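REVIEWER CHECKLIST
Item 1: Sequence provided? yes
Item 2: Single chain? yes
Item 3: Sequence as submitted:
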Amino acid sequence: MDSDPTIERLEVSVYRVPTDAPEADGTCAWDSTTMVLVQAHAGGATGLGWSYAPAACASLITELLQPAVIGLPVLDVGRASASMLQAVRNASRPGTVGYAISAVDCALWDLKARLLELPLHRLLGTILDKVPVYGSGGFTSYDDRQLTDQLTGWALEQGIPRVKIKIGESAGTRTARDLARMRQARTVIGPDVELFVDANGGYTAKQAIRVMTEARDLNIHWLEEPVSSDNLTGLREVRDRVDADVAAGEYGTDLLYYQRLCAANALDCVQTDVSRCGGITQWLRIASLAEAYGLEISGHCAPHLSVHVAAATPNFRHLEWFHDHVRIETNFFDGCLDPAGGTLTPSTAPGNGLSLRSADMAPYRIG
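Item 4: Structure as written out by the authors:
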């Protein structure tokens, strides 16, 4: 490569992919997923990054973030991250702005690794040769057959030793069905596969405690967002009263959010989404912060975007193999990974090891 190439341009596109069936969790329902894809160009190479985010992220990238990074050295991703944070001061970083920053930051790390002809995890400093995953979906909108088929595919056919389903249906108003589905899941996967549940903030604290008390015989390992992730007092109340590990944090977009989350002593594991938190640059800082509090990191969604930085995180627990995002990524990219046995092995190709399947992506493009 040139001795010190600079970032030439960002190319942004938006795709909307229908779900393969109606989907819902404790507090939301949806029938499609939107991806905002960034291609960062320099020195004859292209880096890929994306976020599952509103289409409005594309305008933010074009108007605010591209001017902040064009002309900066490709090797100085930290400088580009700082420049983006400065550029969005008046746009308010939390939420959609944070998602836009994440897509660009991930693309710049991928670009740097490709120019250096290194796998991204090696550039970041590999710690794990294999990244543990858990199968995730189990939507509240599924009927018994759909739930059984999905759990069977992960646990029995692919050999993934941990799986997650959604509970908290209809904002916590259908706890009897929540419990029935949890019992169905345990019956399908057997006694040896870890069972995770995610309420997506659908319960009150005492309600979550009552549900988990009634489900104690099911040996639930992981309880995600039993209450809103902003309800730190409620999270701590639940954590103190249930056997399952309590987790939250998937919506965080800045380091101070995670500082408050960790300092509240409300969690057993911190969730971080590389497509939301500010990208790889901020993920690494968040992981260090969590480690200082004696906590591990779990990667939320976007598995092929997350796997390389997960492999370079010393306090990493596992990565979400999320049904929607797996469908999109395996259709959009060559070089996707196999979760058989419950782990992903990061690619040894330069960068994140992915290449676009442009013809397959084209029907879903909306911007």
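Item 5: Key structural point noted by reviewer: The two ends are 32 Å apart (CA to CA).
Item 6: Recommendation: ____
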